[in-house]
Amino acid sequence: MKKSEKVKEILAILDTLYPAPPIPLHHSDPYTLLIAVLLSAQCTDERVNKVTPALFKAADNPRAMSRLRVETIQKHIQSCGLAPRKAKAIHELSHILLEEHDGAVPADFDALEALPGVGHKTASVVMAQAFGIPAFPVDTHIHRCAYRWNLSSGKNVEQTERDLKRLIPMERWNTCHLQIIFFGREYCPARGHSIDDCPICSRFARKGLTR
Questions:
Q1: What pLDDT shows up at residue 209?
Q2: Disulfide: which of 12, 92, 156, 163 matches 152 by Cβ 3.0-4.6 Å?
Q3: CA 211, CA 196: separation in Å to the nearest integer?
Q4: How far is it, in rounded angstroms, from Cα 66 to Cα 59?
Q5: Quick check: is 139 catalytic?
Q6: In the CATH scheme, what architecture does the domain 30-131 have?
Q7: What pLDDT, on a 0 to 100 scale, did the predictor assign at position 154?
Q8: CA distance 189 to 140
Q9: What is the mean pLDDT of each run of 10 residues along the chain (211 residues)?
């Protein structure tokens, strides 16, 4: 089977299972999404969604957040991990948004990635989910699934992103990356994975894959 045909069948399976995947991180606008995605680094979405209600009650915009002390922000996000670093980044990027972007989150990759604590993946999530601009953020679930399905070599997330962008139509990127995240959590986990029970791996697992 040609890889293009395999991708078409994988997309059909994902569409059946997750026709309208929700955005996993709770947010109300681009700014709160940006903060939530930043917090999700080395932390589960579930944990982030537990801490952001109190944080956003205290400050849900750059001006209010910049007025909080770093220690106060850190107290709100302590259970997320890397709290000191994240709190400092949130405080600093809020000031930068006020000073350089009139308090708005920029819909621009370079401008986003220039913000403290914001890497390419975070910028890609914001561009895709806040602004609807085609992007393909690659997290551990997507990286794992792309390797198992032999859609990428698995060398690194950068290569995985390039491979998936080449194989999947651009108009599908913003939905497809969410579909694969949900699929990876439900059917294709890192541990306890059964190839035979996985709707995609049972048909398209790379040769030699045992789990």
A1: 80
A2: 163
A3: 9
A4: 9
A5: yes
A6: Orthogonal Bundle (1.10)
A7: 80
A8: 10
A9: 92 98 97 98 95 98 98 97 96 98 98 98 98 96 96 92 97 98 95 93 87 71
Task: Give the DSSP per-residue string, 7-46.
Answer: HHHHHHHHHHH-SSPPPSS--SSHHHHHHHHHHTTTS-HH
d(CA 32, CA 53): 10
In the set 8, 60, 139, 165, the catalytic residue is: 139
The domain spans of the chain are 3-21+136-204, 30-131
In degrees and rounded to multiples of 5, residue 171 shows phi and psi of: -70, -10
Which has the closest alpha carbon to 10: 176, 161, 138?
176
Catalytic residue among 45, 86, 121, 163: 121
Q: Give residue 69's pLDDT.
A: 98
Cα–Cα distance, 128 to 144 (Å, whole number): 21
Rounded to whole angstroms, how far apart are CA atoms 18 and 88?
A: 36
Q: What is the torsion angle, in degrees rounded to the nearest 10, for the CA atoms of residue 105, residue 111, residue 113 and residue 114?
A: -110
Given this chain, do its domains 3-21+136-204 and 30-131 carry the same CATH topology? no
- Which tokens in the block code for residue 188? 């294709």
Length of the chain: 211
CATH of domain 3-21+136-204: 1.10.1670.10
pLDDT at position 41 is: 92
Q: pLDDT value at position 186? A: 95
Q: Reduced to 3 states, what is the DSSP secondary structure of residue 193?
A: coil
